[in-house]
Amino acid sequence: MDSHSYFERLIASVERIARHAYYPGIEQTINLVLQDVEDLGIAGQISAEQCEALRFILLGMTMNVPSAANAA
User: Fold this and answer.
1) What is the mean pLDDT of each run of 10 residues along the chain (72 residues)?
2) Burial of 42 by CB count in 10 Å (0-12 exposed, 13-18 middle, 19+ buried)?
3) CA-CA distance, 13 to 33, in Å (whole number)?
4) Separation of alpha carbons 45 and 47, rounded Å
5) What's the pTM?
């Protein structure tokens, strides 16, 4: 798989996670994905710019996710 299509698949996965409805534990999932993105960057599998783009997608889309207190 070329790096461009790999990155496109990463974008689709991150968007899916970021758009997911609130559920208990979503914060932990988001933190795990952020760590995975960082690990991919450190391993050289994606560029620093790609890491930043994935973080932006994930954090930008999840800023409107209600907190546990608001979801109850």
Assistant:
1) 85 93 91 96 96 93 53 47
2) exposed
3) 10
4) 7
5) 0.76
